[in-house]
TrEMBL record:
Domain Transthyretin/hydroxyisourate hydrolase, chain residue ranges per copy: 1-112
Matching SMART domains: TR_THY
Name of the protein in its database record: Transthyretin/hydroxyisourate hydrolase domain-containing protein
Gene3D superfamilies according to UniProt: Transthyretin/hydroxyisourate hydrolase domain (2.60.40.180)
Single biological process term from Gene Ontology: purine nucleobase metabolic process
InterPro entries linked: Transthyretin/HIU_hydrolase, Transthyretin/HIU_hydrolase_d, Transthyretin/HIU_hydrolase_sf
């Protein structure tokens, strides 16, 4: 159960530590309040691994503007948003995302 996230810094080739993140669920055609977090030194948000997420549509938002500004870069994408579905709440889901000031790449999968 839960979501395992790993954010990688594509500029420096290391975990993206200190990125403010949030996960939100779609309810009644609008994004609801969700969980807030910040990536640790390994680029993950460990507390989300223990959360049991119901089936539904979710999004994770990574606040890249402040992260890259802290490294002396201008970010073309102030936020990076990944929208995904959880079908089986008993599964653990994995999001791996590589961030750079002008691009990002994401992979989302179920880890049974």
């Amino acid at each position: 159960m839960g979501i395992a996230i790993q954010a990688l810094d594509g500029v420096y080739g290391r975990p993206a530590a200190g990125v403010r993140t949030r996960v939100e669920r779609m309810k009644a055609d609008r994004w609801g309040d969700g969980l807030q977090g910040e990536t640790d030194r390994n680029g993950g948000v460990l507390t989300w691994r223990a959360v049991e997420f119901d089936a539904g549509l979710y999004r994770i938002v990574l606040e890249t503007d402040s992260y890259f500004a802290g490294l002396g870069h201008y970010a073309a994408y102030p936020e990076v948003t990944v929208v995904f579905r959880i079908q089986r709440p008993s599964d653990t889901y994995s999001l791996q995302i590589t961030l750079s000031p002008y691009s990002h790449s994401a992979s989302f999968s179920s880890v049974e």
